[in-house]
Every structure is written in structure tokens, then in C-alpha cells.
Design a protein that fits this description.
This protein has 612 residues and is α+β, with helices and mostly antiparallel strands. The chain has 19 helices and 12 strands. The relative contact order is 0.09.
Length: 612
């Protein structure tokens, strides 16, 4: 194993990825497996750099001294060649002095506009505006559609480029070699960006190895407990249901129906319909392609269910065997998780998930070791994220509606059941219609595909999110029309906040220069992205979470207030989103550094305005 060259805490010069600028950084740690240094810039940004992209400070001081020692002769020869025979000597001396003062002013300008005095050692200056890395207050808020701001943004770059061409630290020998290469190949020199490989996961979430081990057993037990509670006449917390016989929890026919459902959705996913889009760049710069056809899969599923109902298929079979379906889905998700972990052991290092590469079996098995496991072009994580579980949620709700009508001899469903089905149907259709937006979520970009997401997508979503409809079958609740109207208004408010906030964020990420977004202000970051400080994202840091929680409350209210069981979803959802917000906070602070701190000062409330 090669020995490391730089020690922890050492101040060195690190090259900014994708540019030719070297900045002063401090080494914080070293990854022995990936052979990468974790360095911290002065604005708080932390990056992983190769040893070849790091130089000691003495390296640049040595080059500077060499350049300074040779400069008098160059200046002397330059004056002798360019001096006019008729120009007086005194005027020459005054002109040279003014020239040196002018050059000193330009050097000072370059130093003031750069972060931590960047040292240039390659052929051309970076196209990135170095002002946006140093957190200057006058550039805190920007608008890409303004021509004035655009001029101010480009002017320092042009000035830096013009000055640096005069004060290059390269030797004449290097210039000559460059001219020979350019004349022979007649091609421009391009700088290859650094490939940022995933490093070992050092900060363990979800309670570490012990916490993830317990959750592997606790999550399935919670689902079974909730379903058993809903079956009781008195579903109070103190009335613990008895455990059913183990043989009653499994039925081969039910498992076959589940497999049929899973592969039917897989077939719909593979159909060559819908547009193909690219995801966000991976650590190696590559972009994966995704086919956006979830809404078409929903339409085809709806047609298939309609045909089955036409031929008098009893959908309440789902209600009668609901527990067996949940156990079958759990068994399948466990088998899928084992397969995912085994195949991840052979995955290249750059394809591993940044949050699931700890080296601990249980932790990586739970969080997911591989980021984007694929069989050919079939993306397993992306498919499970929206298709079998989310569409299955709607089918289960429909089955509960039909079961309520049959059990209670109703000609039409109850008003409570209609509200629950309508609200959740709107949520699912919205997610499928805006399927492309999921490509920027933490589930796709950061979390690997392991037991956590496999169980969550295939078991938790369809069988826990449908808890209100399942509860209403055995515990009918009557509500009045004014109450139903008030609950509907509450759901519409939550949906409006949720959808408008997500649309605002997605449109800004896709095209910040869109004229429709001209009134939005943002804080620029070292990554090139902007943090919105107006609109919904200037109200709270996660307005989409706020809308989600309001909708979750509206889904539970039609079940009345006799028991707390129907409100398990909204209680769990608040805990989930608060935990996810804390994860987002941690990742954004590492990613954006000083810019994120300024954003938090500008937007102090996280989810609930004036509360949290």
C-alpha cells in the first residue's frame, strides 16, 4: 500500500475539480481504500482529491522565486527591443515605472477577487467566477435573467484572464513546447475533470450497525402489528392483538399473485413508450438514462383492473388475504435485498452508494451498497420507487372500497372512504405525472438500493399508507358534508404547497434562466448550483415537506377521533420528514459550506414556519 504524502491538518494547495485553479485547503482525513484525501476549503466546502491534484505550498513558492529571478533580464531585453530610437531615456524610465505600477494594480485586483489567493500553474484560467466562492455580500443574491448581473459576473473573469496572460508562471521552455504541440496537432488543450470516487462511509445513520440490525426485524413486525390492530373491534393501543398461527400468515397462491403483479409492472416498465431522460451526473461524470412512462403504466393497470371487474373478479380477495399479501411482499423484498447485496460485492468502486459503503455487512445490507443496480437497461431501484408499490397502493384502496360496500351492504361507498381514496389517488397520479422529478431526490442520488428502500417501496408504502382505507372497512365512520368540505380544503392547501414548491425547485434546477423565474433570487454556491431564497423556498427550507404533512393529516381526519390508529401515518410521516430534513441539513452543509450557512440565516425555519 503506498504511503500518504500529506498529513492530517496540513495546509496545502488543492486543485478545484474541473478547473485549473489551486486553492489553499486543509487536509482533514485520508481514505486508505480509494487513496483519496478529504480536504476542506476556506468556504467550508469538503471534497475528495487525488494526490496528483494536491501540491505543497513550497512548490508554488519555488516556482514564484524562479519566475522573479528571471524577470529582470526579460524586462531589460523587452525594453531594448521595443524602445523607439527617438524616445528620451527619462521618458523611458518614467514609462517603465508606470507600467510596473499598473501591473502591480492588476495583480492586486486578481488577488482581491479570488478565494485564498489561487495559484495558476496550467495553460488558461478557469471559466468559473471565483467571486462566488468567497461569500462576498454583494453577490449573495443573484438573478440569472438580468443582463446587468450577467455583465458584472463576466467582467471579473475577462479581467482575470487578460491579467493572467501577462503574468503567467510558466517558463519560456513550457511556452515553446506548447506552441510545438499546438502546431503539430492543431487542437486546443482541454483539461480533464477530476473523477470524484465514492469514499468509505464514516458517519453511520439510523443508529449504526445495531440500529440497522434492529430495524430489519422491527419494520416487518410493525406492519404486521398495525394490520392485526385494524382487524380488532377495539383497535386501542392497550388492546394488544394475539399472534395468529404462523401457517395462517403464508399462502402459496397469494405469493403467486404478488409475483404476477410485480412482473406485470416490470413488463409495463419495459414498454418502449414515454420519453427517455438523463439523470444527474454520477461521481465519474456519467449520466444514466431513464424511461419516463410511469403514468402510462398506471393507465394500462387501470385498464387491466377494469377488464377484471368486468368479468366479475372479486377484488375484495385482497382484503380477505391482506395479511398474507403483506407477508409475501416482505419475503420478496428480503430475497431481493439479499440478491442486491451479493451483486454489489462485484460492482466497481465508482458505482457504490456514498451512504452505504461503510464496510459493515449489516449496515450496507440495510442502506444499500450499490447506488444504481441495473440488469441491462432495467434500473431496479428506479422501477421499485414508483411502480409496484405506489400503483399497488391505489389498487389496495379500491379493493378496500369494494370490500366496505360488500360487508356493510352499501350501494355507494361511505363519504369517508371516498375522501380517503380520492385524496390518495390524487397524490399517486401527481407522483406518476411528475415522475422525472424523482431523479433529483436523495433516494436516487445518494441512497443505495438495499433492504431499506426495497422493503419501503414494496411493503411499507402499499400496506401502511393504505391503513386509513383498511381501518374504515372494519370501523365505519360517518362525517357530515360541511366536515368533508373542510377536510377537502385542507387537503387542497397541502397539495398546492407541495406541488408548487416542487415545481418551483424543479424548474429552477432545469433552467435557471427561464423568464418565468425572473423574480426568484438565489445564493450561488461553490458547486455551481443556487439556493433559492425567495418563493416557497424562502418561506421555509423544506416547503414540500410542509405540504406533505398537511395532506397526511387530511387523509387521517375522515377516520374520526375514536382511535389513534388511523393517525399512525401522519405521526410516522412527521418523524420521517424531520429525520430526512436532518439528513438533508447535514449533506447540504458539507456540500455547500459557507453558502448553506448564509442560506440558513436567511431562511431560519426548517419545515414549520415560526415553530421548527
Amino acid at each position: 500500500m503506498p504511503s500518504r504524502k500529506f498529513a492530517d491538518g496540513e495546509v496545502v494547495m488543492g486543485r478545484w475539480p474541473g478547473s485549473v485553479l489551486y486553492y489553499e485547503v486543509q487536509v482533514t482525513s485520508y481514505d486508505d481504500v480509494a487513496h483519496l484525501y478529504i480536504v476542506k476549503y476556506k468556504d467550508g466546502t469538503e471534497l475528495a482529491l487525488k494526490e496528483s491534484d494536491i501540491r505543497s505550498q513550497s512548490f508554488f513558492k519555488h516556482r514564484k522565486s524562479q519566475s522573479s529571478s528571471s524577470s529582470p533580464s526579460r524586462r531589460s531585453s523587452s525594453r531594448s527591443r521595443s524602445r523607439s530610437p527617438g524616445r528620451p531615456a527619462k521618458g523611458k524610465r518614467r514609462s517603465a515605472s508606470q507600467s510596473r505600477e499598473h501591473k502591480d494594480d492588476k495583480k492586486k485586483t486578481v488577488q482581491e477577487t479570488s478565494l485564498a489567493l489561487p495559484v495558476l500553474v496550467l495553460f488558461k484560467p478557469s471559466e468559473n467566477n471565483t467571486k462566488r466562492y468567497n461569500g462576498e455580500p454583494e453577490s449573495t443574491e443573484k438573478n440569472d435573467t438580468s443582463c446587468i448581473i450577467l455583465e458584472q459576473k463576466l467582467k471579473p473573469d475577462l479581467e482575470i484572464k487578460r491579467v493572467l496572460e501577462q503574468y503567467s508562471l510558466r517558463s519560456r521552455k513550457d511556452d515553446k513546447k506548447k506552441e510545438e504541440i499546438c502546431s503539430e496537432k492543431k487542437t486546443s488543450v482541454t483539461v480533464k475533470p477530476v473523477e470524484k470516487l465514492p469514499t468509505k462511509t464514516k458517519e453511520l445513520e439510523f443508529g449504526g450497525r445495531i440500529g440497522t440490525f434492529m430495524m430489519i426485524f422491527l419494520l416487518p413486525a410493525t406492519v404486521i402489528y398495525l394490520l392485526l390492530m385494524c382487524k380488532q373491534e377495539d383497535p386501542s393501543l392497550l388492546n394488544i392483538p394475539p399472534l395468529p398461527p404462523l401457517e395462517s400468515l403464508w399462502e402459496g397462491r397469494v405469493f403467486g399473485v404478488f409475483l404476477l403483479w410485480f412482473f406485470l409492472q416490470a413488463m409495463f416498465y419495459l414498454l418502449p413508450i414515454g420519453k427517455v431522460v438523463e439523470g444527474l451526473p454520477l461521481s465519474n461524470g456519467r449520466k444514466l438514462q431513464y424511461r419516463i412512462n410511469g403514468f402510462y403504466a398506471f393507465i394500462l393497470t387501470t385498464a387491466a383492473i377494469g377488464v377484471l371487474l368486468y368479468f366479475q373478479l372479486e377484488l375484495h380477495y385482497l382484503y380477505d388475504h391482506f395479511m398474507q399479501f403483506a407477508v409475501s411482499a416482505t419475503a420478496f423484498s428480503l430475497a431481493l435485498s439479499i440478491y442486491l447485496y451479493i451483486r454489489s460485492l462485484k460492482a466497481p468502486e465508482e458505482e457504490l452508494a456514498p451512504g452505504g459503503n461503510s464496510g459493515y455487512f449489516i449496515y450496507d445490507f440495510f442502506t444499500g451498497h450499490e447506488l444504481n443496480p441495473r440488469i441491462g437497461s432495467f434500473d431496479l431501484k428506479y422501477f421499485c420507487e414508483l411502480r409496484p408499490g405506489l400503483i399497488g397502493w391505489v389498487v389496495i384502496n379500491l379493493a378496500m372500497l369494494l370490500a366496505e360496500m360488500k360487508i356493510h351492504n352499501l350501494s355507494v361507498p361511505s363519504l369517508s372512504m371516498i375522501l380517503v381514496n380520492s385524496f390518495q389517488l390524487l397524490y399517486v397520479v401527481d407522483a406518476l405525472w411528475n415522475e422525472e422529478a424523482i431523479l433529483t431526490t436523495m433516494d436516487i442520488t445518494h441512497d443505495g438500493f438495499g433492504f431499506m428502500l426495497a422493503f419501503g417501496d414494496l411493503v411499507w408504502v402499499p400496506f401502511v399508507y393504505s391503513l386509513q382505507a383498511f381501518y374504515l372497512v372494519g370501523h365505519p365512520t360517518t362525517i357530515t358534508w360541511p366536515v368533508a368540505a373542510a377536510i377537502t380544503v385542507l387537503n387542497c392547501i397541502g397539495y398546492y404547497i407541495f406541488r408548487s414548491a416542487n415545481s418551483q425547485k424543479n424548474n429552477f434546477r432545469r433552467n435557471p434562466a427561464d423568464p418565468k423565474l425572473a423574480d426568484l433570487k438565489f445564493i450561488p454556491t461553490a458547486t455551481g448550483k443556487g439556493l433559492l431564497v425567495t418563493g416557497w423556498w424562502g418561506f421555509v427550507r423544506h416547503p414540500n415537506y410542509l405540504g406533505d404533512i398537511i395532506m397526511a393529516l387530511a387523509w387521517s381526519l375522515p377516520c374520526g377521533f375514536n382511535h389513534i390508529l388511523p393517525y399512525f401515518y401522519v405521526i410516522y410521516f412527521i418523524c420521517l420528514l424531520v429525520h430526512r430534513e436532518a439528513r438533508d441539513e447535514h449533506h447540504c452543509k458539507q456540500k455547500y459550506g459557507l453558502a448553506w450557512e448564509r442560506y440558513c440565516q436567511r431562511v431560519p425555519y426548517r419545515i414549520f414556519p415560526y415553530i421548527y
